[in-house]
Write a structure and sequence with these properties.
The complex is a heterodimer of chains A (about 140) and B (about 475). Chain A contains four helices and four strands; from the N terminus they run ααααββββ. By secondary structure, chain A is of the alpha+beta class. In chain A, α2 runs antiparallel to α3. The two termini of chain B are about 20 Å apart. In chain B, α2 runs antiparallel to α4. Chain B has four helices and 20 strands. In chain B, strands 4-7-8-10-11-12-13-14-15-18-19-20 form a twelve-stranded antiparallel barrel. Chain B is mainly beta and about 475 residues long. Classes of the chains: A alpha+beta (about 140), B mainly beta (about 475). At the A-B interface, α4, β2 and β3 of A face β2 and β3 of B.
């Protein structure tokens, strides 16, 4: 039994080693352009999500608008007005597709709200975002769900 | 015991608690008669005369004993059933949850569903949100003051009991050989023309503790239940006096006390009952959403779980369909409800021998304003209207009673009244309730506050006051409540 349990772990380790080896090989051989763009986009997207999370936590509409220019600011301002504190954590980030200027990303957004009226509540929502490159930074273009 | 953490689990727990509480509350009464029968029994059976030398007149003014087709029975029944209907269908608080935060995809975070804590007795379109629960209690005290504009507790409401059409003299000129067969009039024998005036004094109050719980099946759909525990206090007094139309010179014929023709009779019955009222199952679906408002359809089903004979329930099933519209802008919220209630069943308080009164269908309408005084305080006012279809009204009207007036049983030239020499057939008029077909419209105003002291707790206080004289009225009904959103 115990030896059988170890098998998946060993298999996973083997897969990781093979993957690392193949990535090193690709880098050495020179990555295809699309893959290189995706890698660069992923870094920019993660940075955008980090800024988005921080902007929401700051309860600053302008800060959020910098990361998500299309956000309805009046509605967001009204939402922030009812908040005492908002904690935001974004994880499970998965780049669905990316090129030099656009990306689609799936991620889990966990928010813990301490409202001015009422008690603290937490919700986690998996969202699919569209992002685009705007000069040197990536911004959120919209949400698909 | 594992405490549920999900909304559905909490709703199930709250539901179990309120249902358990409800069914452990066995209805109890503290008198030998069901409360719904106290008033008719007192007026129509228990007013009796002293036995006199003239004969067994003791129960000749007790129509339930001797004359079940007497019109006064219908009048008293109308009064009693209207009281019973309105006792048990007084409005409970609304199901609108006070504190709702929803995840708004357009802004990517929580928004407060409404800055208002919602109406008091009407509904608003906003639902409480998926997997959310709100539950709580309300306590309502109602003390009834008037009926159709007449004070209830000072003897202003009077019923007039005619003498039983017991018999007649085949030859009225001789006053012999009395035949105990009615002759269809109160002229022969002349003493049938006397009346008893029964002045009614009623003190009636209800205390209702309602437990409720609502659960958000989805962001648009709520289900809920309200379980009222009702306590009814009824104190009925009658002061009876003989209106001696036909026997001013022979007062010993009808008297409450031998040798004292001026004596009156005071009767009183008090009763109390408590127990489960009519459980209400509720659902609401918001089919058109707008910011903090929209349009919704709601259905309330009122189950006949309350003992109608003890005035704790209606005695029938009521299904109410309601169209709800609400909106919010700035510091004001508005709401309008229009609906129809279908009722099946009979109202309690039917007098033995008469056909039962059906529970009336209702047209329901209400509307109101909410003012968001601060994020923690909402002030609100509602107008709540109910039109009880074909429930009938009782209106005070002058009513003529026929009697034979004259100096004595005999004497004078004939033929006189109904063949009795020396007497005159005439009438006397008194004001009495008279049944009138039609709808009964009850209009209430409500004003109150909802306050959030801490966390998700909400405290509410309100007063209800009648806007018309129709039906049974309480000058002021007070309601306080507390609820919690999970």
């Amino acid at each position: 039994m115990s030896s059988k349990r170890r098998h998946p772990v060993a298999a996973a380790a083997l897969m990781l080693a093979l993957a690392a080896s193949s990535q090193n090989d690709l880098a050495a051989a020179g990555m295809p352009q699309a893959q290189a763009q995706a890698a660069a986009a992923e870094s920019g997207v993660r940075d955008a999500l980090q800024r988005y999370s921080a902007a929401l936590e700051s309860l600053d509409v302008n800060a959020v608008k910098k990361v998500q220019p299309s956000i309805p600011t009046d509605s967001l301002a009204k939402a922030f007005k009812d908040m005492r504190e908002l904690k935001v954590n974004i994880d499970d980030v998965r780049v669905i597709s990316a090129d030099a200027t656009t990306a689609r990303v799936s991620c889990r957004v966990t928010q813990t709200l301490t409202p001015r009226v009422g008690s603290r509540r937490t919700t986690a929502v998996t969202r699919v975002m569209r992002l685009r490159r705007d000069a040197d930074t990536w911004v959120i273009d919209g949400f698909e769900r | 015991m594992r405490i549920p953490t999900s909304g559905a689990g909490m709703f199930a727990l709250m539901g179990s608690l309120v249902v358990g509480l409800a069914f452990s509350a066995v209805s109890a009464r503290a008198q030998d008669l069901p409360l719904a029968q106290v008033l008719p029994e007192l007026i129509l059976r228990e007013i009796t005369l002293a036995p006199t030398f003239v004969g067994a007149h003791v129960a000749h003014f007790s129509p339930l004993t001797n004359e079940v087709n007497n019109p006064v029975i219908g009048i008293v029944q109308g009064f009693n059933t209207q009281m019973a209907t309105q006792f048990s269908t007084f409005p409970l608080g609304s199901s609108s949850g006070g504190m709702t935060y929803v995840f708004d995809e357009s802004v990517g975070t929580f928004t407060r569903g409404s800055a208002s804590f919602g109406p008091l007795f009407a509904e608003r379109a906003l639902t409480i949100g998926r997997r959310k629960v709100n539950a709580g209690f309300t306590y309502q005290h109602t003390s009834y003051d008037t009926f159709e504009g007449q004070p209830l507790d000072d003897g202003s409401i009077k019923f007039y009991l005619t003498h039983q059409d017991c018999c007649h003299f085949p030859d009225p000129t001789t006053f012999t050989d009395l035949v105990e067969i009615p002759d269809g009039s109160r002229f022969n024998p002349p003493f049938e023309g006397d009346l008893i005036e029964a002045a009614l004094s009623v003190r009636a109050s209800t205390d209702t503790m309602a437990a409720f719980a609502n659960y958000g099946v989805s962001d648009r759909w709520d289900i809920g239940l309200a379980v009222p525990l009702v306590s009814v206090n009824l104190d009925v007094g009658v002061r009876a006096r003989i209106i001696r139309l036909s026997t001013p010179l022979a007062p010993e014929v009808h008297t409450f006390e031998a040798g004292n023709p001026a004596a009156t009779q005071a009767l009183r019955r008090s009763g109390h009952a408590s127990g489960l009222g009519d459980v209400v199952l509720r659902t609401k679906y918001r089919f058109l959403g707008m910011a903090a408002g929209g349009l919704a359809a709601a259905v309330d089903v009122r189950l006949p779980t309350g003992d109608e004979d003890e005035l704790l329930g209606t005695g029938g099933v009521q299904g109410k369909v309601l169209l709800v519209a609400s909106n919010e802008g700035g510091r004001f919220g508005q709401h309008v409800n229009i609906g129809y209630t279908v009722a099946r069943g009979d109202v309690a308080g039917t007098v033995a021998g008469l056909s039962a009164t059906s529970l009336p269908d209702e047209i329901n309408y209400s509307g109101g304003l909410e003012f968001i005084a601060s994020p923690r305080l909402t002030l609100m006012g509602d107008v709540i209207g109910r039109t009880l279809r074909h429930a009938g009204r009782l209106a005070v009207a002058s009513k003529a009673f026929e009697y034979s007036a004259g100096a004595s049983f005999a004497g004078g030239p004939g033929p006189g009244c109904a063949g009795v020499p020396g007497r005159t057939c005439t009438t006397a008029s008194f004001d009495e309730f008279s049944p009138r077909p039609g709808n009964l419209t009850l209009l209430l105003g409500a004003g109150g506050v909802k306050f959030n002291p801490v966390g998700n707790w909400l405290i509410s206080a309100s007063v209800l006051f009648p806007r018309t004289d129709a039906g049974l009225r309480s000058r002021v009904t007070t309601t306080v409540g507390v609820d919690y959103a999970f």
